[in-house]
Amino acid sequence: MALLALRDVDARYGQVQALRGVTLTVESGEIVAILGANGAGKTTTLRAISGTVRRTGTIELDGRSLARCGPERAARLGIAHVPEGRGTFSELSVWENLRLGAHTRRGSTKGDFARVLEYFPWLESRRSQQAGTLSGGEQQMLALARAIMQRPRLLLLDEPSLGLAPLVVSEIFRIVRELNEREGTAVLVVEQNARTSLATASRAYVLEVGAVAYEGASADLRERDTIRRSYLGY
Amino acid sequence: MTARRSTAWIVPTLLLAGCAALLIGSLRSSLFAQQTISGLANGGIYASLAVALVLIYRATEVINFAQGAIATFTTYVAWQLIDWGLAYWPAFICTLAFAFAFGFALELVAIRPVERRGSQLTVVIASIGLLILVEGAVGYIWGNDIRFMPAPFPAHIYRIGGVAFSRQDIATIAISIASVGVLWLLFRFTKLGLAMRAAAVRPEAARLVGIRVSWMLSLGWGLAAVLGAVAGMMAAASPSVLLQPSMMDGILIYAFAAAVLGGLESALGAVIGALAIGVTLNLLGSYVSWITPQLLLPAAFVLMLVVLLVKPSGLFGRTTARRV
Fold this sequence. Notes:
The complex is a heterodimer.
Chain A: E1 4-13, E2 16-26, E3 31-36, H1 42-50, E4 55-61, E5 64-65, H2 71-76, E6 79-82, H3 94-101, H4 110-119, H5 136-149, E7 154-158, H6 166-183, E8 186-190, H7 194-200, E9 203-208, E10 211-217, H8 218-223, H9 225-232
Parallel strand pairs in A: 3-8, 3-9, 6-7, 7-8
Antiparallel strand pairs in A: 1-2, 1-4, 4-5, 9-10
Helix pairs in contact in A: 3-5, 4-5, 5-6
Chain B: H1 2-7, H2 10-28, H3 30-60, H4 67-83, H5 88-117, H6 120-142, E1 157-160, E2 163-166, H7 167-189, H8 191-201, H9 203-208, H10 213-236, H11 247-262, H12 267-287, H13 293-310
Antiparallel strand pairs in B: 1-2
């Protein structure tokens, strides 16, 4: 059984229908990418999963329906959603941001901090810095670190490359792969940057106007002419 | 950036100068020292209520106009408990517990349904409705007569170097500052406090890490009501206020002025603003002959107006550095 399964999911913002019958799955331990143009419904798909937008249809995590779950509940069930704009608590310190990642868990978080520092050693020396004063790339890494503190089974990443330098982007994707290999965390990543995400993900879905237009293994999608021309640009 | 750096010294310098002036005045005149202390006691009462306002403002960007009425109600509860024969301190503790539950419940019943549907303006109007309702309930249950709230400590005068301090004043200052301090510790050092701050600054992101934001708001109302109860019980014991349905109306205005002076977002700013207002008004009232007690409330209004015109972010308004 798939870790995450969406069947015929619709979502709307007021009058505007953003998703039309989206069906997709993520197996446990898998990295899956969602590609598509602006406004295709990529972000909304993630928001439908974490319950931050009204939706209908079937959404299941490990066979358990998320239909009635808001974002608080989804977080408790093991979904870490790093939203558009990274969800940084700008006014709080770096350390407090990390601490918030472990909010739903009781007991000591020492082990989690140590684990996060293995991925991001630089966080140690910046722990009391106000998070809003970090650079964009650092904030993206902090968001990832906060998500790691959640010990998620499924990580939802919304455009982690947005506005960042290529070097930083490849560092972030390297860490996502490492996280996936070491902890077995499944990742569903939304990207405009198709080249990097197809290199990282094993499978991908291409959304067009709120519906899945293509799906397949990353290697196959890279070979398809239409996708190459529209999303990879060569 | 440069502009901010060049003005950053003004507020601390003003505060230091003010403190120095008070200290010198107190050393030279014992009357001045007494008036300063009782001004600080008034300020302590304003501070508790002002911090309660800041607490709710930070979470929802709404001024809770019912804060004073809620404080009055809980103070009457304390009076009732004492009237039934409970000793002062047990009654004090029970009242704090009641205040927490009361504030929590009011948010749940009166504010949450409105907030979910309406704008901030609707919430403000709901809070004005609560003000009328709660104050009316006080009159309905306990009547409009003035009652006498016992003081936590027997009347006593300390004499230090020819200056007489009333124990009541000292206790008021200590209890107000302690209650604000305990709240600060809660926010600064506990997981719950961190979650409440996160819910206040970034509610959407807070929900994504599993924080139940709406419960945090109810909790905030509960804690604000506890602070209000402290202010109410301290105020009711003061001979210039006494226990009556409208007892917190004036104090709420001073607390507004203090919160505005402190920048509405800063609890420390509200405390300093409240102490400054308490001392200033008390000294003005006792040294400037034409300033009668009737002029003190308008003076607080004028101060509020000046702050809003000259420096709307207040003395301690946060200017958050943010990089995108």
